[in-house]
Amino acid sequence: xxxxxxxxxxxxxxxxxxxxxxxxxxxxxxxxxxxxxxxxxxxxxxxxxxxxxxxxxxxxxxxxxxxxxxxxxxxxxxxxxxxxxxxxxxxxxxxxxxxxxxxxxxxxxxxxxxxxxxxxxxxxxxxxxxxxxxxxxxxxxxxxxxxxxxxxxxxxxxxxxxxxxxxxxxxxxxxxxxxxxxxxxxxxxxxxxxxxxxxxxxxxxxxxxxxxxxxxx
Length: 217
Prior knowledge:
Elements (H helix, E strand, L loop, with lengths): L1 E4 L12 E3 L2 H8 L5 E3 L2 H32 L3 E5 L7 E6 L1 H10 L9 E2 L4 E3 L1 E10 L2 E10 L2 H10 L6 H53 L1
Parallel strand pairs: 4-9
Antiparallel strand pairs: 1-2, 1-3, 5-7, 6-8, 8-9
């Protein structure tokens, strides 16, 4: 289906472009959301007649979005969730959860503006794109943690807080490998020393035997 875009659509085109899209995408999203018009002759004429006003409205809306973006860009929101020692969430954090957290922080955002992709299933710091305008996105950090204290640690270190048992196990494994390697090196060195010692003992014994043989002759 051919449609006329009424605003910039990522990976499709800019306002006023006539593009071909799948019929289902047009009927279920572009047309009902007033993001496009069917590319009929009458709609083309209507768009051209309204182009100047549409562009002016778009510019105004972008300017307002930029003002909000200056404050929102780089904002971090905390979402506390239950999770296992390894950081796996008992559930997930979705776009609505993030939109609600941003709204609680003082910004009006809906879940459609949160470009999440897949739900978050691990604790940690997750950078999320938030679309404030078809031509403007900002980045918000979702600090997903098991408590406010863990969230503070993650914000300070920039790393997810995993279970201490897991960290200790990893450190113990590394320490054990180092001990094992040192033991192998020591055994190898000892084996070389024994070979050299045995060789040095055999040489005097052979010389003594030769001397006794000479005397007898």
